[in-house]
Amino acid sequence: MRTTENVNQLIKQNKVFCLLGDVGTSTTVAIKQTLIDEKVPLFAPLTGAASLKTPVTRYLLNCRASYNQEVESEILGVENEVNLTGQFSGMFKSAGRENPKT
Length: 102
Known about the structure:
With 102 residues, this protein is mainly alpha-helical. The protein has helices at 2-12, 25-38, 67-81, 87-97; strands at 19-20, 42-43, 60-61. It is built from 4 helices and 3 strands; from the N terminus they run H-E-H-E-E-H-H. A 3-stranded parallel sheet has the order 1-2-3, with no helix packed on it. Helix 2 links the parallel strand 1 (19-20) and strand 2 (42-43). The longest helix has 15 residues, at 67-81.
């Protein structure tokens, strides 16, 4: 994958101390172990994948909510906007998502 090649070059040849804003889950997953091994932080990857949030690593500095948190927030926003408080989130909870993973 070209992402890994580029990140390895940036770290090993260009001697960067931090990376900013990698785009996408697959590219971030591809470089995660390199970041940990080389002790180079990635700030604000553009992904909400739970697999990149847990377990927590000091080299992935997430600023975005998880996809589950975004959906939950959207559902609550729609409920509040159309005055249906509890209608959709109740279904969300009854579907076993009362405490969604983040």
